Amino acid sequence: MQVISSRLTSISLLMLLAFVLAPAGLDAKRKRRAPPPPLKIVDITTSPVPFAPGHEPMAITVTVELPEKLDQFDLIEVSSLISVPTRRSIRFLVRRQILDTVIIKDGKPRMTTTLLWDGKDQTRKHVPQGTYSYEARAKLMAHEEGFAKVKIVSPFARGTLDVSSPQALARQAPHLEHVPFVSDEAGPDLLNEEGEDPGGTGSDQSENAGTAEKSEL
To answer: Which of 2, 17, 55, 132 has its CA 20 to 30 A from that of 189?
Structure first.
């Protein structure tokens, strides 16, 4: 009887363990099968390198991979928040434009846009030499009745920008450089039925769409 009881106890424990671990296994499979986001940043370059405030502005060129299905009235908005390592923001750059320069690469539509930073902070003073953080993201927007409505928001792309001194600029010839970045590519941020902008400020939805470029210089 004791042997039978021990076997029943072992079987019960195994069944309980399988019941507990099954959801974790399913979650892991779901995570592995998660589709890539339909809108994401795939490349960032900056020029000139080295960059020093007071000379030509830094061109932050962002390449965005777009969804395969696009509307002729869609807009793309690319923004970047520049901050110091303490996370204090010093400048926000944004540009919105129509999808007029879309190219196909590896079967995917892509578009490149450029943000310009003059090396100044929000008080219009030149920032000192050092390393600055940035968070870039893209938004696909629909032009509806004179307003732009956010459809999809890309994961953040985070990296750093180096600001040099005028002396360093004099010692090295300026060039273009690819900037390493880390993407929050956990999946697309999709909007709910009310059209709210997840993780955004919400202020862009009431602006006139047009083809205005809003890079702060």
So the answer is: 132
